[in-house]
């Protein structure tokens, strides 16, 4: 039985095949079948697209590879955090999937920047042995998740900056320009990412910090306790945000990162988000404002607005 001929014949009919297809057709072991797939790869006849259970073979050639990769719109990778380089991981994802194919230049620039910055944070700050990365793309947006089982972003900031609580650490993160490694980082990665993407979420311990640029708001919520840090961010495929403009907006003429402009809206009425507390207070200077039944997250945001 000419196994190479069977593989190529099957591929001609179906455009892409898996090793399991040939094993089922011939009854041969996986090791034996994989050997012939490897020979055909070395001969330049076929190419492998995808990883693990998503792996399949297509004819070699740019058009065949591109068509196959377009069908791969999600991936999940568990990385060993040893000598890890975020740019190599990004290139690997682009090579093996279609998540970044045919997206607008401005969206691609934001996605690249945000992914590299957030993965770099996990690599250098988390102290986690493993880092889990998930990327998904649908017809509307790209979604990225980076999870580590390390010290936790809020606790790390709290300890390194000698703060009293994780809420104070969250305050530092909202301000921007904060870093636990000042000699190696300016602290701009989180800040610029929080301005560029549609949504950016940091979940650690029992707190969740949410930057929502769709409605222009920032939230702090209680959540289920987790060990480490989960970072989730999304960017719409039709986003008009421009990374270069965001850099210019928050940089001075010497291109130093030195501007911070954060507005926090305080409450929601029906479906409309309201931001009038400070305006009202400015017109009623003699009035005293009291709040009741606020949990620590709401109290934190109110006091921040009052300052």
Describe the structure.
The protein has 307 residues and is α+β, with helices and mostly antiparallel strands. The chain folds into three domains: 3-67, Orthogonal Bundle (Arc Repressor Mutant, subunit A), CATH 1.10.10; 74-262, Histidine kinase-like ATPase, C-terminal domain (Heat Shock Protein 90, 2-Layer Sandwich), CATH 3.30.565.10; 269-306, no CATH class. Helices cover 41% and strands 24% of the residues. It has twelve helices and ten strands. It has helices at residues 3-14, 19-26, 30-42, 62-70, 86-96, 105-125, 153-160, 166-175, 188-196, 243-249, 277-283, 296-306, and strands at residues 16-17, 46-49, 56-59, 74-80, 130-137, 141-148, 199-212, 217-236, 267-269, 272-274. Strands 4-5-6-8-7 form a five-stranded antiparallel sheet. Strand 9 (267-269) and strand 10 form a beta hairpin. Helix 6 (105-125) runs antiparallel to helix 9 (188-196). Residues 182-186 and 262-276 have low confidence and may be disordered.
Instruction: State the order of secondary-structure elements, H for helix, E for strand.
Output: HEHHEEHEHHEEHHHEEHEEHH
Silhouette: elongated
Overall number of domains: 3
By CATH, the superfamily of the largest domain comes out as: Histidine kinase-like ATPase, C-terminal domain
Oligomer: single chain
Order of adjacent strands in the largest pleated sheet: 4-5-6-8-7
Distance between the termini: 80 Å
Content-based structural category? alpha+beta
Uncertain parts: 182-186, 262-276
CATH architecture of the largest domain: 2-Layer Sandwich
Number of beta strands: 10
Helical content stands at: 40-55%
Per CATH, the class of the largest domain reads Alpha Beta
Bin the strand percentage. 15-25%
The largest pleated sheet is described as: 5 strands, antiparallel
CATH fold-level label of the largest domain: Heat Shock Protein 90
Determine the mean pLDDT.
84
How many alpha or pi helices?
A: 12
> How much is the radius of gyration in Å?
24 Å
